[in-house]
Write a structure and sequence with these properties.
Structural class: alpha/beta
CATH topology: Glycerol-3-phosphate (1)-acyltransferase
Radius of gyration: 18 Å
Order of helices and strands: HHHHEHEHEHEHEEEHEEH
Largest sheet: 7 strands, mixed
């Protein structure tokens, strides 16, 4: 089963809206308490998803116990709350730090000079917290962001986020609708100093090209289109991941990609951080058994 064949496990629009009001009026800790019990309920009845979590935990070297599986589920659920905060501009940018100050400064210099930047991200951690950072003026200007995401998956949660989100400098591109004119449109945007995010770790439902590589000691299929797309833009390319630390702090890991070995270096970047933050790898499907 591929990721786009997994049925969405969202709580439903009404319950998500209720969670939003609980967060809004009673604070994040109360919302997290509610999420804990909702996640426990979903965990008890999510046998197939638990199986995929256990499979992943074995691969990454963690004991696939029910306790660790639940920690994996809960980490994902809490990340959705942080995502919600980011969409309403309530996530504190002071909670975000960079792992490497030199790479941070290089990125800020690219942005301040009006250069476009292409980020290859993943489903490790929570890249949406970058919204809080990009909405402040630390870089000398507000940056317009272009994000590629699946419109068919997580439709309930994504529609909920659209409903509560405040206006931001963001344009979304459904990956299902990428066509021959999309690179031209995006290149124009990047040439005017905008930035783009596209994940490099999931095969699209419409993906016609892919490559297989060794990842965590297993053969895994990755989308080739992301890397072709990145090269076509002719702007600086960065690998990026936002990983959660204690007390809802996040660390941004950046690595500037060279012109050679773009795919191979991305896989190494992703593998290194997955081993460091194993419970923040949010692929709840049989990633390691694709043929």
């Amino acid at each position: 089963m591929r990721w786009y064949q997994v049925k969405e496990q969202a709580a439903g629009t009404k319950r998500l809206t209720l969670l939003w009001y609980i967060y809004k009026f009673f604070g994040k800790n109360t919302a997290k308490l509610v999420i804990f019990f909702v996640t426990f309920f979903a965990f008890c009845f999510g046998g197939k998803i638990r199986k995929y979590s256990a499979q992943y935990l074995r691969v990454v070297g963690l004991k696939p116990s029910l306790f660790n599986q639940f920690r994996h589920f809960l980490s994902y659920s809490y990340s959705l709350l942080d995502k919600m905060e980011s969409f309403v501009n309530r996530f504190d940018a002071q909670k975000i730090q960079f792992a490497d100050e030199e790479i941070k400064q290089e990125f800020f210099e690219d942005i301040s000079k009006g250069h476009g930047v292409f980020f290859i991200c993943s489903h490790l951690g929570n890249i949406d917290v970058m919204r809080s950072l990009l909405n402040i003026d630390e870089m000398g200007r507000h940056v317009h962001v272009n994000i590629f995401l699946s419109e068919s998956q997580c439709k309930i949660f994504n529609n909920f986020l659209k409903k509560i989100s405040v206006k931001q400098n963001v344009t979304t591109f459904p990956v299902e609708e990428i066509g021959i004119d999309t690179p031209i449109k995006l290149k124009d945007k990047l040439n005017s100093g905008e930035i783009a995010f596209l994940a490099g770790d999931r095969i699209s439902q419409n993906e016609s090209a892919s490559f297989k590589t060794n990842f965590l000691g297993q053969t895994v299929e990755f989308p080739l289109g992301t890397f072709i797309f990145a090269k076509l833009m002719e702007v600086p390319i960065y690998y990026i991941a936002a990983l959660k630390e204690k007390n809802d702090n996040y660390t941004i890991y950046l690595e500037k990609a060279g012109s050679e070995n773009l795919k191979e270096n991305y896989v190494k970047f992703l593998e290194k951080l997955t081993l460091k933050y194993p419970l923040q790898f949010y692929h709840f499907y049989d990633l390691f058994t694709q043929k």
